[in-house]
Write a structure and sequence with these properties.
This protein is an alpha+beta fold. It has a single domain (3-167), classed as Roll (Thiol Ester Dehydrase, Chain A), CATH 3.10.129.10. The protein is built from 3 helices and 7 strands. The strands form 2 sheets. A 5-stranded antiparallel beta sheet has the order 2-4-5-6-3. A two-stranded parallel ribbon has the order 1-7. A hairpin with a 4-residue loop joins strand 5 (89-100) and strand 6. Bound molecules: coenzyme A (COA).
């Protein structure tokens, strides 16, 4: 393989800043989670397409944890980096912090992982993406963690598939005891 088929993590690292305006607020006065998701999707695409230099689609979003609420008037900064690359997929790690100008407080808001897949624009079929050049321990750690998440996700999916196939409601009713539900219908 030639060097051209590998790119550094830094070459596609992306930062996005956005001021939280009143139209982003929900009834409680905080910024909608959906606004944050939309910004995350935007930066994940930019980062993935910069690495792949191809059109990409969002295949999945994992572990979106909202750590702190975001207030109108705060400045949001999103950081995105390619953590792991498979054949056509890329795991993009995203971190968001929000900054309150009045008191200078910077707080973590979100972390999450997007899986983006490079596809051919006409056929929409997945296409190979360049590999990653890992330049320090943190990049190696992130790549290994990305591999782990991919493996765990696949085994979790298979476990769920088997559990659903084996689910027999008649035999499982006793599990509902003590749960926050009422049975209106008994088989
Ligand atoms: C994502 C998509 C291209 C995958 O196509 P596919 O025919 O299933 O392709 P494959 O099974 O060969 O998978 C291709 C890659 O995607 C990965 N992938 C597919 N589905 C995935 C999922 N749900 N989560 C994580 N990775 C996924 C595979 O692991 C594989 O990775 P690799 O090439 O690095 O080994 C296809 O499902 C698709 O187009 N989905 C719709 C995307 C979309 O519309 N997004 C929202 C708007 S952008």
């Amino acid at each position: 393989m030639s060097d051209l088929e590998f790119r550094t993590v830094k070459s596609s690292q992306t930062t996005l800043k956005e001021l939280m305006v009143p139209s982003y607020a929900n009834f409680g006065g905080k910024v909608h989670g959906g606004v944050l998701l939309s910004l995350m999707d935007k930066i994940a695409y930019t980062c993935a397409a910069s690495h792949a230099r191809r059109y990409c689609v969002t295949a999945s979003i994992d572990s979106v944890d909202f750590i702190n609420p975001v207030e109108v008037g705060e400045l949001l900064t999103l950081y995105a980096s390619v953590n792991y690359v498979g054949r056509s997929s890329m795991e993009i790690g995203i971190k968001i912090v929000s900054e309150d100008f009045h008191n200078g407080v910077v707080k973590p808001t979100n972390t999450c992982y997007f899986t983006m897949v490079a596809v051919d624009e006409e056929t929409r079929k997945p296409v190979p993406v360049p590999g990653l050049i890992l330049e320090d321990d943190q990049e190696i750690k992130r790549f290994l963690e990305g591999m782990m998440r991919r493996r765990l996700k696949l085994s979790h999916r298979e476990e769920m598939r088997q559990a659903r196939a084996a689910l027999d409601i008649g035999c499982e009713l006793h599990r509902l005891e003590g749960q926050n539900c009422q049975l209106k219908h008994r088989r």
